[in-house]
Amino acid sequence: MAPTARNERTVGIRELKAKLSECVRDVKGGATVIVTERGRRVARIVPET
């Protein structure tokens, strides 16, 4: 996962599949995960409020 802005991480789809539990744990801790496909942002996973 590549760090971007404060408390935001970028992850490709392949890496997301491999590290889903880790990404969910990060989101539960307040981080936002940006999902990319071929370098383009396609989704954002944010904490439930």
Describe the structure.
- With 49 residues, the protein is α+β, with helices and mostly antiparallel strands.
- It has a single domain (2-45), classed as YefM-like fold.
- 31% of the residues lie in helices and 39% in strands.
- It contains 2 helices and 4 strands.
- The model has no long low-confidence stretch (mean pLDDT 92).
**Counting H and I runs of at least 4 residues, what is the number of helices?**
2
CATH architecture: 3-Layer(aba) Sandwich
Main sheet?
A: 4 strands, mixed
Derived structural class: alpha+beta
Key terms for this structure?
alpha+beta, 31% helix, 49 residues, YefM-like fold, four-stranded mixed beta sheet, single chain, 4 strands
Short description, anyone?
The longest helix has 9 residues, at 20-28. By secondary structure, the chain is an alpha+beta fold. The protein is 31% helix and 39% strand.
Topology:
Layout: E1 2-3, E2 8-12, H1 13-18, H2 20-28, E3 32-37, E4 40-45
Parallel strand pairs: 2-3
Antiparallel strand pairs: 1-2, 3-4
